[in-house]
Recover the amino acids of this structure.
């Protein structure tokens, strides 16, 4: 498929990508022609913006929490030049403030407590270049008014988020830390295997909050004693995380989390001196750093923040491990969609698969007891996890089935299955609800393994399916950890059941009823709550499930909505559907939205496959014999 020669690239004002313009459609053309035109425009856009390596740059708006966290860290721990960067970040924060007085996760997003508290703290602590300028004071007053109107920090239901907001405000003198529940820092003293289960990927923010709380004094002699014993182990744990990430100074490849850790270390006495080392783990040969001191970790974190500041003074959300941002997940969604649109054997997609194979981790990640063979969101360095690995494996399955990276990745995926049959995100058999087990991830893992040729009778798939079918909510839907609302996990389960020939089973019927009930009057989908407007991401997912289950009419209505919302350059506006912190911090992913929309339109425009029709006998499948009736599911993914 090639673009007409008269389509010249132009730049969308919001994300800076050069894109091929699309010729306006005639007003009266049939749906199939419109579908084909939309697919051509979308594939043309993605292929035109592909990098020579086979990757893509995934545009992201600047992040409020990332900018505020970086500004706090650079002001509290950095040099004079760093404080100028902090001032630039605060200048950007003032521009990004919402009319209601608060801030959202990303520029232009609805206000939320985490972003608002982080911004208010930064604007309070970082001096303005002009002390007579009252803009920062006015903004902080507005932030506190917004927070008060929302019920205050006390109204935040999630304990960890409440601790975070309270301690950040207390650090800036905007609140008190006295009523904050104690962060049990002594958990870092647990044996590694147990510590992994109870802290999982949350080790860096957990330690940061414990250190911030210690600044205000531990309540009681036992708590003070626990802190004195645990602090060295907590700092060692931070050093191990930084080292295993690739020794680049970041935590999670995220300026916000890195800034939070640096702020916590600096505000409790670990301040890097000018000219100190730039790497906490240089020269280390084992899987952890031997006795790191906080000052070295601060120095490495500051180096990372200096390297990742954007030209406008802001910082991105989840920048990644490299100065030039490298991202795996969004490009994997784009590549998978191009494969379904007929480009799987195109040399440009072969390059993408080679690049993704090169991003496979070749060393173990001891903090998660994780062997080599998985992927993370930020290139070859970072936290290996099942969610991002599945996105890559879907792309690799479109190529050589005997490719070494694919075989290693599939073996890795099987090794990450929990004892109960499910899959979690970072740590097997975790006790952390935000890590897993997750119905969405489990359904995607089972589908990838099925498509890779693992038979449905394999005991590992049988265990996984049995666990999954018991997670159905009372309303028939399923829930995901890393995507909002009812649509993503419900869709993942339906696509799995359709691939297994079980789209008429009782579980599938209830899930289909829930998905159909969630469709909005205009044909789109959102969270499942009819008060929320539809998004491209959720609508595309639903269209994929309905098409897989043979509901052509429902899929067509969703596809019509996608056609109406495709922009003139062939792109779609991404929805605020990805979850970063529970129900509090959501973000959008441009390439993920493009990939989902293209995949959905390709599925609807493809001829129907008679083999998709399911046999009525599937309702008696033994793997569903112990599944709950509607209304008894645990819904424990949240």
């Amino acid at each position: 498929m090639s673009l007409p020669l008269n389509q010249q690239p132009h730049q969308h004002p919001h994300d800076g990508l050069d894109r091929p313009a699309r010729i306006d459609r005639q007003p009266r053309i049939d749906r199939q022609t419109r579908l084909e035109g939309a697919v051509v425009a979308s594939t043309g856009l993605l292929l035109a913006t592909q990098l020579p390596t086979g990757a893509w740059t995934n545009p992201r708006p600047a992040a409020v929490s990332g900018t505020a966290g970086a500004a706090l860290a650079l002001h509290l721990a950095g040099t004079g030049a760093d404080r100028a960067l902090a001032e630039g970040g605060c200048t950007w924060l003032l521009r990004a403030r919402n009319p209601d007085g608060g801030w959202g996760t990303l520029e232009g997003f609805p206000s939320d407590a985490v972003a608002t508290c982080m911004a208010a703290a930064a604007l309070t602590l970082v001096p303005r270049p002009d002390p007579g300028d009252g803009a920062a004071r006015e903004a902080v007053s507005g932030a506190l008014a917004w927070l008060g109107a929302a019920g205050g920090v006390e109204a935040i239901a999630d304990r960890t988020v409440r601790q975070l907001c309270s301690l950040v405000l207390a650090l800036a003198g905007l609140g008190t830390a006295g009523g904050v529940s104690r962060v049990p820092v002594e958990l870092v003293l647990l044996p590694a295997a147990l510590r992994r289960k109870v802290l999982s990927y949350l080790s860096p923010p957990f330690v940061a909050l414990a250190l911030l709380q210690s600044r205000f004094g531990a309540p009681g002699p036992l708590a003070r004693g626990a802190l004195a014993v645990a602090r060295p182990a907590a700092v060692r744990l931070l050093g191990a995380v930084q080292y295993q990430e690739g020794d680049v100074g970041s935590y999670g490849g995220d300026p916000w989390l890195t800034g939070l850790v640096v702020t916590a270390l600096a505000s409790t006495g670990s301040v890097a001196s000018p000219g100190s080392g730039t790497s906490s783990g240089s020269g280390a040969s084992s899987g952890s750093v031997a006795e790191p001191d906080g000052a070295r970790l601060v120095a490495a974190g500051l180096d990372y923040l200096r390297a990742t500041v954007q030209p406008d003074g802001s910082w991105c959300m989840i920048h990644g491990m490299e100065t030039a941002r490298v991202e795996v997940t969004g490009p994997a969604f784009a590549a998978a969609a191009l494969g379904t649109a007929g480009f799987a054997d195109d040399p440009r997609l072969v390059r993408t698969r080679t690049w993704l194979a090169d991003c496979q981790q070749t060393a173990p990640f001891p903090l998660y007891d994780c062997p080599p063979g998985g992927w993370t969101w930020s290139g070859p360095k970072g936290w290996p996890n099942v969610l991002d690995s599945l996105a890559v494996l879907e792309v690799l399955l479109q190529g050589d089935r005997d490719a070494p990276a694919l075989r290693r990745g599939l073996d890795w995926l099987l090794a990450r299955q929990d004892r109960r049959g499910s899959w979690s995100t970072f740590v097997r058999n975790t006790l952390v609800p935000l890590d897993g087990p997750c119905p969405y991830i489990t359904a995607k893992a089972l589908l990838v393994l099925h498509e890779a040729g693992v038979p449905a009778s394999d005991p590992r798939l049988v265990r996984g399916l049995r666990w999954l079918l018991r997670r159905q909510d009372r309303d028939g839907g399923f829930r995901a950890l890393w995507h909002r609302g009812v649509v993503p996990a419900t869709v993942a389960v339906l696509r799995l059941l359709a691939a297994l020939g079980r789209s008429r089973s009782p579980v599938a019927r209830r899930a289909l009823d829930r998905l159909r009930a969630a469709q909005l009057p205009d044909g789109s989908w959102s969270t499942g709550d009819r008060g929320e407007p539809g998004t491209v991401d959720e609508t595309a997912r639903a269209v994929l499930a309905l098409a897989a289950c043979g509901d052509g009419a429902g899929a067509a209505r969703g596809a019509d909505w996608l056609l109406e919302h495709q922009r003139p350059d062939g792109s779609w506006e991404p929805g605020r559907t990805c979850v970063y912190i529970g129900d509090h911090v959501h973000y959008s992913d441009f390439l993920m939205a493009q990939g989902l929309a293209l995949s959905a339109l390709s599925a609807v425009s493809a001829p129907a496959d008679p083999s998709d029709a399911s046999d009525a006998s599937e309702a008696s499948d033994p793997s569903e014999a112990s599944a709950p009736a509607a209304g008894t599911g645990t819904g424990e993914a949240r």
The chain has 22 helices and six strands.
